[in-house]
Amino acid sequence: MGKPTGFLEYPREETIERKPLQRLKDWKEYTKKQPEDMLKRQGARCMDCGTPFCHIGIEINGAAAGCPINNLIPEWNDLVYRGKWKEALDRLMKTNNFPEFTGRVCPAPCEGSCTVELAGPAVTIKNIEKAIIDKGFENGWIQPRIPERRTGKKVAIVGSGPAGLAAADQLNQAGHSVTVYERADKAGGLLTYGIPNMKLDKDVVERRIKLLRQEGIDFILNTEVGKDVTSEELKNQYDSIILCTGAQKQRDLTLQGREADGVHFAMNYLTQATKRLLNIEVSEPLIDAEGKNVIVIGGGDTGADCVATALRQKCKSVVQFGKHPKLPDVRSDANMWPEQPNIFTMDYAYEEATAQYGHDPREYSVQTKKIVSDHNGRLKELHTIQMKRTSDDAGNMVFEEIPGSEKIWPADLVFIAIGFEGTELPVLKEFGVEVKHNKVVAKHGDYRTNVDGVFAAGDSRRGQSLIVWAIQEGRDCARQVDLSLMGSTVLP
Question: Is the pLDDT of residue 353 over 80?
Answer without folding.
Answer: yes
